[in-house]
Design brief:
The chain has 194 residues and is mostly helical. Helix content is 61%, strand content 0%. The chain has one domain. The protein contains seven helices and no strands. 26% of the residues are buried.
Length: 194
């Protein structure tokens, strides 16, 4: 497996690009939260919605990557323990056991669905193809370790972006809350919008 053709965070488009036009580029741009307190409440809510949608998309992508990581870790464990059987026989259990790492998020409840499911699926498939992960049972121990390291790096980058987006969403939510507390915004206004 040559490292020359391995996709990285930059060329897979995981991280924000200065001046980019994707939602993550906008949400994590330096000026996204500029003059937050001066924005009309509708614009502020739009900023928050964009950040929440980006968080949902990053969360989906992260879950997909974690599933692949769980499969690799299970195969490594199966080999190290000398257990017989096939990783495929254990697949339902591997993916149903829940996260393999302790949670380190902000404990958020996401209320929107991912908007770019097909794009995220293609991105993960591209990463998986780049690390030669179509069948973990045919990888050598070294290739398995290399695939694990690459996917962990990619998952960490996605997680870091997700945390940054959560911080942006929290700033927008805090400003909305401040306006309601100070009387600058009214719940009545929200109800008349619907």
């Amino acid at each position: 497996m040559s490292s020359d053709n391995v996709q990285t965070e930059d060329n897979l488009g995981v991280g924000p690009m200065a001046g980019g036009r994707r939602r993550i580029d906008r949400v994590l741009s330096d000026d996204y939260l500029a003059a937050l307190s001066d924005l009309p409440i509708e614009d502020l809510r739009d900023l928050r919605r964009d950040a929440e949608q980006e968080e949902a998309d990053l969360s989906y992508l992260r879950r997909m990557l974690q599933g692949r990581l769980d499969i690799i870790r299970a195969e490594r464990h199966r080999r190290a323990s000398g257990e017989g059987g096939s990783i495929i026989d254990q697949l339902a259990q591997i993916l149903a056991d829940g996260p393999s790492a302790p949670p380190h998020g902000l404990g958020r409840h996401i209320t929107v669905e991912p908007s770019r499911v097909d794009e995220h699926r293609r991105r993960v498939e591209q990463v998986v193809a780049d690390v030669g992960l179509s069948d973990v049972t045919h990888l050598s121990d070294g290739e398995l370790s290399e695939a694990l390291a690459r996917l962990e790096t990619y998952e960490h980058a996605v997680s870091a972006n997700r945390r940054a987006v959560q911080t942006v969403a929290d700033a927008c939510t805090a400003e909305v809350g401040r306006r309601y507390q100070s009387g600058e915004a009214s719940v009545d206004d929200l109800l008349t919008e619907r």
